[in-house]
Amino acid sequence: MTKEFLIEEINRLKKEKDALILAHYYQVPEIQDIADFVGDSLALAKKGKESTHGTIVVCGVRFMGESAKILSPEKTILVPREDAGCPMADMITAKQLQKYRDEHPDALIVSYVNTSADVKALTDICVTSSNALKIVKQLDHDHIYFLPDKNLAKYINSQLEDKQMSYWLGFCATHERLKEEDILKIKRKHNNSLVLAHPECNQLVLKHADYIGSTSQIIQFAKENAHQSFIIATEDGVLHKLRNDSPNKEFILANKTLVCPNMKKTTLTDLYNALLHNETKVELDEDTIKKANNALEKMLNLSK
Ligand code: CIZ
Ligand code: SF4
């Protein structure tokens, strides 16, 4: 099937099936281009919830499809690639979290949205990289436990004045691959560029950043900043939006290894098949949805 045929069919099927296509900034350019809306996980979650479409196709990784289902249980949520997971989300299971809760009944559990629905169901409040700091600052609790990303946890702690969170030792393998020597090397080569980094990067990398933020915050910063050249320390998919927004500015990926294999799985053929066959539907049990919804809704309220 040609690309033109796939694009035409996807657009036809989405109308026929009353479907809304959402894509994360880390998706391949063709998927971002055909999506009705592209955003970070917070924006996708909100968009899915507000939409009046009966079907929502989430092009990203599994936890994003699950979040859409948790917030809109009455809608059909499709993920084009069921095997696109997030290795960081898989670093903590519900069983492990239950054990932690049993041993620390006083802890307030704050989970990054990069977690399974089962983990969210055991969570007090969720956060994304866009709102984590804002939300944690508002939490008045002696013992805050953050999971699963140790890098995001350390970054938030570095920004807090009156409290410190303890945290699980998970990480994003894609961001973790970026080493301090890589960032120093690329800075030497492009010494007029500003370094924009995601807080999933290691602290040794973050200390060389001029700006630290989520994908949407990096995108906003680069658009508004007068600088002409930027080194980007997050997943390469985000370069598509950065270059579209500012065609005259230069964007350099900090290291060519910043590619998430799971985010790159979804192709136009997968999206076409998802719409054609209504596959793969995200199914979650009612109890999980109810409990996980509580943690996500608290996040949406506190991030307003
Ligand atoms: O929250 C998200 O969408 C992720 C995984 C990255 C980011 O910073 O936007
Ligand atoms: Fe998970 Fe990292 Fe891939 Fe995002 S980039 S989906 S956190 S493995």
Notes on the protein architecture:
- By secondary structure, this protein is of the alpha/beta class.
- It is built from 15 helices and 12 strands.
- The chain has a 4-stranded parallel sheet with strand order 2-1-3-4, sandwiched between helices. A 4-stranded parallel sheet has the order 6-5-7-8.
- Helix 1 runs parallel beside helix 14, helix 4 (62-71) crosses helix 15 (286-302) and helix 12 (215-224) runs parallel beside helix 13.
- (~{Z})-2-methylbut-2-enedioic acid binds next to helix 12.
- The site of (~{Z})-2-methylbut-2-enedioic acid has 10 residues, from helix 12.
Biggest sheet: strand arrangement? 2-1-3-4
- Low-confidence spans: pLDDT under 50, at least 5 residues? none
* Helix content estimate: 40-55%
Q: In sequence order, what are the helices and strands, one letter per element?
A: HEHEHEHEHEHEHEHEHHEHEHEHEHH
Mean pLDDT: 97
What integer value in Å does the Rg equal?
Answer: 19 Å
Shape: globular
Each distinct ligand: (~{Z})-2-methylbut-2-enedioic acid, iron/sulfur cluster
Total E-strand runs: 12
